[in-house]
Every structure is written in C-alpha cells, then in structure tokens.
Write a structure and sequence with these properties.
By secondary structure, the protein is of the alpha/beta class. The chain contains 6 helices and 6 strands. It has a 6-stranded parallel sheet. β1, α1 and β2 form a beta-alpha-beta unit. It is globular, with a radius of gyration of 15 Å. The termini are close together.
Amino acid sequence: MTIDPSRTALLVVDVLAGGADDTVYDPAVEAFADACARVTKACRDAGVQVICCDDAHRAGSDHELALWGEHGMAGTEAAAPADCLDVGPDDIVIPKRRYDAFFGTDLDITLRELGVCDVIVIGCDTNICVLQTLAGAFYRCYGTMLVSEATRTFLVGTQEGALEYCQRCFGTRVVSLDELLEALA
C-alpha cells in the first residue's frame, strides 16, 4: 500500500472531548482512543494533513438533535477535539452540524485547495457519521480508506456491517492500524 502524503488528508470524525463518560472505564473506548491518537500522530509525522471534523450543533435548530438529543453542542468543551489527538497549529478543525462532514461545510473546498485526492477516515460512529462522510467523499470522487481499529460503532448496527457497507458501496479500503502505520513509515 502506498500513501502520497501530499495528496492525502486524514479526516478525524467526531473524536470529541465530550465523547465518553469519564466515570466508567471501558477498554473498547480506551483502545479506540489510543488507535486514533496513533493514526493522527503517524499522519502528522508523515506530512499528511490532519482535519478534525467535529460536531458543533446549535440548540433548538439542528435537525439531528431530535433523534439523538443534545451532544457535541457548539461552543462547549464537548464539541472540541479529544485531548488524545493532540491537535496542533497545523491541524484544521471543521465544525459540522450533520452526519456527513462535507454537508454544509467547507471541507470539500479545503481538500481541493490542498490538492487532496485521497482521504483516510477515522472516528465514530462508524455506522453514522463515518459512513456518511465516506459517502460524501465517494460522491465527490475522493479515494477513501478507513482504519478499522480507529473507528467505533456504538449507536446502531454492527462494526462489521458498517465496514462491509463502506467497502462494497464506496470502494473504501479498510486497513488495520498496523498496515497504515507501516505504509506511513
């Protein structure tokens, strides 16, 4: 597998500071966060642009809130990128109000201005925001890759079903954390 850092961006979808209940230990959440941190660091080290696509919902007006309740509210710490990502000055943060990080945001124009042709996507929920962002990338003719350990399903469906759907419907290349790290080394 070959990755051209000058034509690739990492999209980190909804890996948020308010994304987990700190009072309950969950090894699956810890493993997911660790994988996201490792992918983000490896991409930065390889010269791949890191873009955090984060929920930034508005109280009283966002359609999504009727289904899932308040979460990732704009202007709150819960909508900020998670500390494990170690977001730096060269990273880009794009707020989003819908599942698809392309919908109603400047993600597409940002990627085009950077000369990006391929995106690596990590984050959660695999069956919702990650899947819809991969759909948005596919519809705009970006090549897509997903790192299995750095995505997480917890609201609806199964992780396996989401990965299969992304592979079959969007041509997404699903890779392991080790495969990605080796390609970026």
